[in-house]
Amino acid sequence: MPTIHVDGKAYEAPADKDLLSVLIDLGINLPYFCWHPAMGSVGACRQCAVKVYHGDSDQHGRIVMACMTPVSDGLRLSVKDPEVTAFRQRVIEWLMVNHPHDCPICDEGGECHLQDMTVMTGHAYRRYRGRKRTYRNQYLGPFVNHEMNRCIQCYRCLRFYRDYAGGRDFDVFASKDHTYFGRYEDGVLESEFSGNLVEVCPTGVFTDKTLKAHYTRKWDLETAPSICAHCGIGCNIIPGARYGMLRRIYPRFHPEINGYFICDRGRYGYEFANDPRRLRAPVSGKGQQQPVSWPEAMRQAQEALAACERVLGVGSPRASLEANYVLQALVGEDAFSPGISAAEHEGVSLAIDLLRRGPARSAALAEAESADTMLILGADPTNEAPMLDLAIRQGVHRARLDLVREAGIPEWNDYPVRNQLQDRRGRLFIAAVASMKLEAIAEETYYATPPELAALGASIAEAARKRSGDDQTLPGRVAQALLSAKQPLVVASVSGGPDLLRAAASIANSVSRARETACLLAITVPECNSIGVGMLGGRTLDDLFAEIESGRADGLIVLENDLFRRESPERVAEVLRSLRFLIAIDHLPTRTAAQADLALPATTFAETTGTLINNEGRAQRFYRVFVPEGEVRPSWQALRDLLQTQRPGTAAWASPEEALGALAEERPEFAPALEAAPPATWRDRVGQKIARESHRDSGRTAKDADRRVFEPQPPADPATPFAFSMEGYQAEPPAALYPRYWYPGWNSVQALYRSHFESGSPPYGGMPGRRLLAPSGGLAPAHEAPTPASPAPLATDEIWLAPRAVIFGSEELSRQAPAVASVMPPPTVRLNPVDAGKLAIADGASVRLHAQGQVFVVPANLDPGVAVGVAVVPIGYPETAGIFGISRARIEPVT
Ligand code: SF4
Ligand code: SF4
Ligand code: FES
Prior knowledge:
The protein is globular, with a radius of gyration of 28 Å. By secondary structure, it is α/β, with parallel strands linked by helices. The structure holds iron/sulfur cluster (SF4) (2 copies) and FE2/S2 (inorganic) cluster (FES). FE2/S2 (inorganic) cluster binds at residues 20, 32-35, 43-48, 65, 67.
């Protein structure tokens, strides 16, 4: 490792990094703006100046930008030299010439990198007395606020939005001394990752528009580490709350999953937790629901369940592993369902089986980023698992950068090439039922019906097995590309149907065996704990309903699940009507809760603690961030209390961790989940818990000072290592327990770069999360997908129905958030104009679809990007309730 000398002190430094990141990792304060660890260096802001010396005799030195300087052995430099210190002061002075002095009313204030860097350089007085340059701000949609006067022209926003995330509706516009970062006209930002501008921008140009509606300074927020509940990827997040209200979400760094970023659904879906219609107290009595106390609710539940012949339990892929387990323990394994439709149940179970068998290995997002050749078979990552889209984009980009590596240019300095190659396509192959955003960077696309895609998948797997290098057919070309890749990746989806899942696994397995090393397989799943409930197992919802319909069961407990989304609403209504007693436990006033005899108010993900298992099979812990208003309880706790009333003396679990321990004891495959994060008993060296609130020095004294002059006792929280207080451990915690990012002098999110975790050191406390799914049998098992039998041809009025997720609208929780709801596309059936022509369906006209035992009517949306013979409808809309998985549909215009 090279040795560098900084102001006379010797340090070891990695050779493949730029000097700025090395200095930051060494804990040396050096201001910067344009450098970003995920986007590298461009040398735009001139803020990170240091003085370097040539050899021992050089006394004068020369000023260089640290972010543009490679590390070399023996490098001698100064950060403190008076000339370079003055240089940095002048740089920030000129950057501040046009910057408004509006910190008190700026949403970035108190967590602003520009504030931090201004203080760090010592620039304290404004000498400029002239008029400032001003701009007109733009309307950028419901997520991001724009205040261009605060811009310091660092170009980070542009580099993130266009080069990193592939957005095309945002740019830099310039005339004379005016440089403008925005859209060419007002309008909603099109990128699914636009919210990252909030942290990427080092000033207050881009701020969280949803936070504005209930604004709170960073130092007034209660925060704790959490996991995004809006898809199966499991991005790490930090929710912030105050006065019993969830205020915002920002990304929490995880080097193997989401890195520094999250998607807009994950960031802006949180406002469902503040829904004024939320259940805040138990309510009893079908129809005319009356608030009752918890003891009364428990008494009624106990009495009613005892009177039932047989009680069934419906779990939920959006509830924690612990809550699902306690419900399973309450009703018994033979009376429990994970609460998903039969088609989804089959898909999730198959995904778990495929990831267990191998030899292909499930891909973490960071591994997907490192893939240089990718095949998407029947999935739509942008809409199903948005951060996988971002990872694929980085993979495509990295593969294009062979030129950079061949030229010996370090990756941190790749910007000119990245810029030059931004529209060049990469080694990405897409085979799907309809066009998708990622096709803009794909080498080849193939849009076809589900059976044609499954046949293509089987042919690719066959070509990979044969390893024939001169096969120039599409399957041959794709197989060759995967076989010759440094790191191949196959992406599939549970919603694409079992045939495509098997075909994708068969390709990945064939490639693994041919290369004698595991190919990566990423399978997207519909919800945040789909894999968790899938692993718990149980019967299909259809099966449970059949038992109720046959009169063999008359009691039902539904955990955080709206059954009207899962099955035909008519059937659900009929099933619920025939019950003797229905208990619904939820935080949203769903249709199911409205039909319940007893509705118990549950906490949201931000108000309780638990474990979720993501699409790669990684168990991750989320923690209670705040105490909600009202008589709201965690689901696992309400179910445990019911269990104790049913079987006194059992289930003496005081925390979700203890419930998880019981599950791990019963079923050892869950045991690694206990290691996903340090235990609730974690304390620092002097016995303190981690403070959920920022340091007392932050400026706050008594947070309730407007309402009372004493500080009440904070709520007890024995189930977590966190305290509801400013008092407690404030230094760097174990990696899974970061409640916020802060470092002396660093108040913005960029304090993260000062953490040991981020710098690549082995994480203190271990890497957050534990994998529960891994291939068991090396490369050997011969698990091949049978080539699916060709289905009977479609009749003239038939079509393949492909229900697909949409990023804003399909997911149950985020669609309740007003900002997300405002950008949801209307429900339509997307049809190729060829099919529409044959069936005499006009664009916008109503269409009736008969499929999966249901009839539903939606407007037609003629879209040449949809394969001929396919009708695409959105999952999760009331208009398409209960539809999941590929099926045939009869289609007709509504006359
Ligand atoms: S808007 Fe923000 S990120 Fe973009 S150039 Fe200006 S200061 Fe930098
Ligand atoms: S990709 Fe999924 S888990 Fe990640 S932030 Fe978006 S919705 Fe949340
Ligand atoms: S951070 Fe080095 S020039 Fe901007």
